[in-house]
Amino acid sequence: MEEEPLSYEEAINLAANEMCRFPLIEVQGVPLMNMIAEKWSLISAFKPDPTDLLVSTYPKAGTTWTQEIVDLLMHNGDADACKRAPTVERIPFLEIQAPPPIPSGLELLKSMKPPRVIKTHLPIQLVPQGFWENKCKVIYVARNAKDNLVSYYHFDRMNKTQPEPGPWDEYIQKFMRGKLAWGSWYDHVKGYWRAREKRNILYLFYEDMKENPRREVERIMRYLDLSVTEDVIDKIVQLTSFKVMKENPMANYTFIPKIVFDHTISAFMRKGEVGDWINHFTPTQSQMFDEDYARQMADVDIPFRTSI
Ligand code: PPS
Predict the structure, then answer these.
(1) CB atoms < 10 A from the CB of 48, how many?
(2) Which of the ends of the chain has fewer CB neighbours closer than 10 A, N or C?
(3) Residue 102 pLDDT
């Protein structure tokens, strides 16, 4: 007897259940979701076009915000044009391999003509060589370690494709040891920092974007060799404020089914602040973290701010 085909909802549930909480597998010492590790040779062989732009971050550092700014700049502030599809369909996530409706980055890239904006969380040593050979522009966004860690913790609670975060205290340890998906925050921010001049990387800070979004939008505009009017810049600043993006279904990730991203546990657009770490770290945890931070960051001077 022929089996009844699965409904869309059933297929998503099955896919999500089967692929729920992917284990991490190391690729060149960097833990990645197993679905990514399995496709690694294809991902690292990806050849971008010289006109493609890479937006790179450690997870939860301000990727979606920056993607929205870039998309709006490229569409002269046209809000409707930037609502043509959810972020993951407008801007392929290079390495992602996840349950539907999240499209595979490589598949999506095949269907799009350059110039494309491409998202990645890969540390610099894993970025496909083609990006450097073709001298692609790269925007890197970094966020202070404590807020980045807090945001990642809440994301791992609601995102059913990544390993369980476990208790907060243990999560801090995992972050410090680089055991979370996409590896060490410390190596990530240092890698791009050291390469920024040689590789013409625009290195931005989440804290600067919060402090003066207009200044940072203009910085991105200049880097992209674009020119938009003052009014359009004002409009972009307004459209990419936390409040507006939180309500934008094409930017707030609510299109992803609850079985994959459970916003009732924690919203993707959670707080969008600098300094929320203070509500999570106990004084003892904060001191221990700071001492370890000083050791891990002793060989570099990156001007991170944990408050503004
Ligand atoms: S991801 O999954 O790695 O792509 O996540 P990412 O977009 O890098 O980071 C999500 C955090 O960024 C906050 N966010 C914003 N903050 C300020 N303004 C705007 N417009 C904005 N958009 C997203 C989002 O709320 C997450 O941070 P937390 O601290 O968890 O709120």
Answers:
(1) 22
(2) N
(3) 80
Going by alpha carbons, the residue nearest to atom 16 of ligand 1 is 272
Taking the CA of residue 151 as reference, the ligand 1 atom at the shortest distance is 30
Which atom in ligand 1 lies closest to the alpha carbon of residue 147? 29
Query: How far, CA to CA in Å, does 233 sit from each of 40, 108, 216?
Result: 39, 29, 10
Q: What is the chain's length?
A: 308
d(CA 215, CA 205): 12
**93: its two tokens:** 């996530």
Asked if 38 and 123 count as a contact pair (C-beta separation under 8 A), the reply is: no
Cis peptide before 101 (omega within 30 of 0): yes
Sheet of strand 201-205, all strands in order from the earlier edge strand to the far edge:
117-120, 53-57, 137-142, 201-205
The C-alpha R_g of the chain, in whole angstroms, comes to 19
User: How much is the pLDDT for 209?
Assistant: 98
Domains of the chain: 8-296 (3.40.50.300)
What whole-number distance in Å separates Cα of residue 63 and Cα of residue 207?
13
- By the 8 A CB rule, do 213 and 45 touch? no
Give the pLDDT confidence score for residue 21 in this predicted structure.
Answer: 83
Which residue ranges of the chain lie beneath pLDDT 50? 19
